[in-house]
Amino acid sequence: MLVEASRSETAQQAEAPEYDLRQIDSNPNFWYPVAWAHKVRPGKAFPTRYAGHPIALIRPEKGPVYALEDRCAHRQVPLSKGLVEGDCIKCCYHGWAFDRAGKCVTVPYLNRSDVGRPVRAYPCREKAGLIFIFPGDPALAETVQVPDIAQVGNPEYKTRQFGPRLKCHYTFMHENLMDMNHQFLHRRQMGSITARFLGQDKGDNFLEARYSFARKGGNQPLAEALIFGKHHDLEGREQPVEEVVSIRTTYPYQTLKIHDKDGDLIMDLWACYVPLGSDQQGTQAFGLLSVKKPKWGFLLDLAWPALGLFTHRIFEEDREIVELEQKAWRELGGDHNVEVFPIVKALRALLARGGVPNKAARPLKKG
């Protein structure tokens, strides 16, 4: 038994992050959403950011959207304030024009194309109502798949978007959703429920945890009942598994899927937590939530506002708690979390493997 315990402890230490997890930057060699597609209008430019990098998204009147560094090579003013003409954008200051590859095609007052420096161009794709960029090595962009997103485009589902900005490191968001043991936080919204861990799957770049929930008290929320059906009061008896909730981090994305007792997918959530700031201590979340339409689709339409309000209230409780975690990290000067749930330990290791320690990253003390 002592030998087995020692091996288990050694395995956990091998999985643990070598650096403070909140100082491990998001790996740029993936596709990240940086804007909702409807916000980038034809003939216009749109400013956005990835980490500490300003990005200008440009949608010509004809042709696909493209992404450039949002700084003119001349005086460093934002290109997103410029004028879109044809397939190019002209800086608002002196009219230097840049094409979709970032090349300066003209300096108008010299009428030459060989004097202006280029700006960085980012590989750019539009999918599922989102605009993605590849902020890392552009040579890798064609080898990395743009992710599949919830049930966008599937007529059997109704989908809503959400995109909050949070004052916390992106890793807090992964931990919050993966760890369903925090339902006590949501007791005012959901009543008294307990998560039951059903199992896990994991690999080099993913981790999935499965749960069911048992109601211990309080009424089932109306929005939940409209989507999943009424859960009857069993008068103190253990509630059977009626839905299975599967939460999966496939670096750097996260999903939550709910299957009913017959195995049918009834809810599909996709989220990506895009880092903000040079220290990445802020996050812009992009998420899409797809809900299976019932036989009478108008019932879901009627319930949609209630569902939106319900999910918003849940998220606001999560927002407050992860921002408090970030505040504690700053005040304590580092990560002092005492984690005991094996799933979250494995998730932290996955995020550490996938990410890139920044210049300020401090090695963690062992033991």
UniProtKB/TrEMBL annotation:
Which keywords has UniProt assigned to this entry?
2Fe-2S, Iron, Iron-sulfur, Metal-binding, Oxidoreductase
Q: Domain named Rieske: which ranges?
A: 31-133
- Would the keyword Metal-binding turn up in this protein's UniProt record? yes
Gene3D superfamilies named in the record:
Naphthalene 1,2-dioxygenase Alpha Subunit, Chain A, domain 1 (3.90.380.10), Rieske [2Fe-2S] iron-sulphur domain (2.102.10.10)
Q: Does the keyword Metal-binding apply?
A: yes
InterPro entries from the xrefs?
Cholesterol_7-desaturase (IPR050584), Rieske_2Fe-2S (IPR017941), Rieske_2Fe-2S_sf (IPR036922), VanA_C_cat (IPR044043)
According to the UniProt entry, its GO molecular function terms are:
2 iron, 2 sulfur cluster binding; metal ion binding; oxidoreductase activity
Q: Superkingdom, according to UniProt?
A: Bacteria
Protein name, entry field = Rieske (2Fe-2S) domain protein
